[in-house]
Structure formats: structure tokens, C-alpha cells
Amino acid sequence: MIEEQIRELDDRTAGQMLAVIARTRMREGDFETELSPEMAEALQEEFNVQAEAGGVTAGDLAREALLLLARDPEHQKMLMDLLIGPEQKSFGVDPVTAAAVITGALVVLQTHVRIERDKKGKWSFLVERKAASDGILKAVVGKLASLMAK
Questions:
Q1: Who's near 98: CB < 8 A, 6+ residues apart?
Q2: Whether 81 contacts 5, CB under 8 Å
Q3: What's the predicted TM-score (pTM) here?
Q4: What is the 8-class DSSP label of residue 58?
Q5: Assuming Cys at both sites, which of 23, 45, 49, 117 could form a disulfide with 142, CB separation 3.0 to 4.6 Å?
């Protein structure tokens, strides 16, 4: 049910929901929020995915990141509150940019993956919590890489 509702979200609403969740999570800790070409390449290599061909939008990435959260019981209540709450129709007037969605997706990705960079600039990734399906992690990474390639 929750996954179906997320898939039906328009790009703007999905992006705004992701931004709300990312801002909340960022208050709770320190997160890597900048996606560099080097990080995108390292993520692709780590998860063995390629940038998706075609028209991946920021909304596609936002929905995928929300789906990743939906598979985690810890985040389901917040998602349901956002989906059915009165704010759902009025998240604010700020347009959601691809940069904001990428930041939000990186924060969400870090609910399952620890991202670190060593002193030599090499990225490493440790999957701390398996998602219900590793495919959803790969989908988020693939869409991140696709937006980075644009």
C-alpha cells in the first residue's frame, strides 16, 4: 500500500517529501551530502550498477529513495504521516531542484550504507543494514549516477 502511494507521487511532491525527511535526518547526525563524479563512480562500482539510460528525473530518484525508506519499519510511520497528513498538499513553495533531491537521496542512502573517504580521497562503502531487497539500493545508486551524468 505505502509503496503504491509513493509510486503515484508526482515529481514535485516526491522531491518535497524527500527534502522533509532529509532535513529531519540531517539534524540527527553527520551525513555526506555532496555527490561528486568520483563518488558516483565509486558507488556504481561498489553496487555494480550503471547509470540508467534515458530520462531519469529528480522525481524518479526521490520516489526510489522514498521506496528504500518504505521498506524500513523505522521510517514507515513518518512516510505515512507525510502521505496522508494535511501537509501532503502543501509542502511549501520552494521548487525542488535536482541538487536538493540528490542531497536527500544521499542522506537516505546513508540509512543503510556508511560512506567514507580516506585521506587519499578513495571512497568506501559499508552496507550496514540490508534493505528488504538489495535491488532497491542498486536502483537508488543507478538513478543517482544517471542524474550525475546529466
A1: 58, 147, 150
A2: no
A3: 0.79
A4: H
A5: 49
CA dist., res. 40 & res. 51, Å (int): 9
- 148 Cα distance to chain centroid: 13
- C-alpha 37/C-alpha 52 separation (Å) is 15
Specify whether the CB–CB gap between 112 and 129 falls below 8 A: yes
Contact 116, 147 (CB under 8 A): no
pLDDT in tens, the chain (150 residues): 889 999 999 998 899 889 888 888 888 777 888 888 888 888 888 888 887 777 788 899 999 999 998 988 888 888 888 888 655 444 554 556 777 888 888 888 887 788 888 888 888 888 776 654 567 888 888 888 887 766
- What distance in Å separates the CA atoms of residue 100 and residue 111, rounded to the nearest whole number? 17
Amino acid at 144: L
Domain residue extents for the chain? 2-149
